[in-house]
Model the fold of this input.
Amino acid sequence: MTSDIRRALVCEDDATIRRMITTMLEREDFVVDAAEDGEAAIRMIDQERYQLLVIDLMMPRVSGYQVVEYLKQNIPPSLKRIVVTTAATSAMQSPFPEEICKVLAKPFDMDEFITFARTCSEDTLTRTKRSAS
Done:
């Protein structure tokens, strides 16, 4: 059933981290798309509906901050499905829209990450199932 599919977008410029997060999410039965920068992520967001968005803040060309701002302006409900990741400890103090599900500092614990991935995508999946009934 297509209503049970959980789609995730991983937007991360570090290929090793991108593959690690993708693998962990696939083990949790997410169908995962990956983008190496914010520009590619925005193109994917415009073409697909994601139940989870994992967005690194510091990326070339279009930053994670810009992706979050794009979502805030164009698809506000998606903010509660975002897990922001960052290696910049100063970014943890940055003002993010309060609707964002979670901000995680790198390096993060993968078990903790998976817990937040489940939580952040759960509300969307539940609503999708309800509306399909």
Notes: Residues 11 and 111 are 19 Å apart (CA to CA).
